[in-house]
Amino acid sequence: MKLVIFDVDGTLSDSQNHIVAAMTQGIEAAGLPLPSRSEMLSVVGLSLDEGMAQLLPDAPLSQRDMVVQGYRDAYRARRMLAVPPLYPGAAETLDRLAGREDMLLGIATGKSRRGLDALCEHHGIGGYFFTRQVADDHPSKPHPAMVMAALADAGVDARDAVMIGDTTYDIEMGRAAGVATVGVSWGYHPVEALRSAGADRLVDSFAALEAAVSELLEGRG
Predict the structure, then answer these.
(1) pLDDT at position 220, please?
(2) Residue 204: pLDDT above 60?
């Protein structure tokens, strides 16, 4: 069996408006200067604690904790009004990959389990994933724990797996776990950053993604 592991925010789900709005609300409520939109998106994929430490390095821990809680509250409220959409082609690609007899799908995300479950339920994609690894249970990316746990769940060797994501954290996590990596161009980190992080393939469409996954897994296997 092969295992294809997906990041979520910026890879499957176009959640940037929800993320930026929730970060803005949390940071302003804590009385801290507001970073730029690009700076806020640059930490997507990290756990909230780690992301706020990078985004607000000069803020006291007590204020960063306020931002984290404010973000959680604001994101949950926005999600109840409107769940972030999937990128066009994402659901169809998941359906085709999940339909292959030689392939299992997984998730490794900086989202909470509650947030991931809500997204999967809303879009009807939860059944595609054999394993779901979330920030609640692991160190922040790029630590390889989530990928290692996904491999163990699926009983798949690292050489038979690929990690797909839009940030350098995804690529670095996959490389640290010994799996192949694919960087997507439509997310939150520049393509050049993904290339510098060592992505095995870079793609700009879901059609190209499917082809890259097949090529990488067949070659490594």
Answers:
(1) 63
(2) yes
Mark 42-73 as b/e (b = at least 16 C-beta within 10 Å).
bbbbbbbebbbbebbeebeeebbebbbebbbe
- 172/145 Cα distance (integer angstroms): 12
Angle between helices 90-98 and 206-220 (to 10 degrees): 30
Indicate the average pLDDT of the chain.
Answer: 96
On the 0-12 / 13-18 / 19+ scale of CB atoms within 10 A, 95 is: exposed
Of 102, 149, 154, 151, residue with least CA distance to 130: 154
The H or E element containing residue 55 is helix 48-55
List the catalytic residues.
Answer: 7, 9
* Helix 16-29 × helix 61-81 angle, to 10°: 140
Q: How many residues does the chain have?
A: 221
